[in-house]
Amino acid sequence: GNAYVFDVPENEYFMMGDNRDYSYDSRFWGSVPYRLIVGKPWFVYFSWDKDKNVRWERIGCFVDTLENDEQYIHDHDDEDKLS
Known about the structure:
single chain, 83 residues, mainly alpha, 2 domains, two-stranded antiparallel ribbon, 2 helices, globular, LexA/Signal_pep-like_sf, signal peptidase activity, protease
């Protein structure tokens, strides 16, 4: 497949649909500011660190609410971003 590079501004997130070939997501409409994210996560499907190593201990973990995870996101924002 083709590989593309997307620059994601600070405090914005790249949203990817689960049906890659038919999802209209950040590849089409760009990144999303955190303040506009209204969905609530249910569980961690996949996770990797800044060095692109899989974080196996997080996969399959349930997330209570986005509000409860907001502090984690804030504390780990720089290390969780992929370039």
